[in-house]
Amino acid sequence: MSVAHAPAPLDDTDRAIINALQGEFPLCENPYAVAAEALGLSEAELLARLQRMLADKVLTRFGPMFQIERMGGAFCLAALAAPEQRYDEVVEQVNAFDAVAHNYRREHALNMWFVLATEQPEGIAAAADAIEAATGLTVRRFPKQREYFVEMRLKA
After folding, report:
1. What is the DSSP string of 44-91?
2. pLDDT (tens digit, 9 = 90+) per residue, 55-78?
3. Are residues 132 and 88 in the same domain?
4. Contact of 53 with 61, CB cutoff 8 Å
5. Exposed, middle or buried by CB within 10 Å (0-12, 13-18, 19+), for 85?
6. What's the CA gap between 59 and 124, in Å, rounded?
7. pTM of the model
8. What CATH number does residue 101 fall under?
């Protein structure tokens, strides 16, 4: 069974970093230095805070979002039904694959959902097959049929 953890505390600087870097990361030679200066921080402090928020799971990911299909790759939403007594084990098995972009639990018969991201479209089937072989569970694939863009900004 998964254990819930208390949220990590955020100070005003952490909140300012989260608010400032949502969709507005500088595109330049030294983006962290530019972002840090705008926040009144040193580059080293900004990087340390981002690393801490990632380690504490305040942030699950920090990086660009790409339209992988334009680069020849593919994304696919996938799900499986992990037996409750094996849930944590299956999470570790699934997350060990480089093709797994992120993974989350749902209250549903298909209780583990994740995104597969591969460099070539045929990599999706190979990744799903490898996860099935590792876990012994059927991976259901839900390929994207249409693209939607919804920007969501969260006030930390």
Report:
1. HHHHHHHHHHHHTTS-S--S----GGGGT-EEEEEEE---GGGHHHHH
2. 888 887 787 766 777 788 888 999
3. yes
4. no
5. exposed
6. 26
7. 0.60
8. 3.30.70.3460
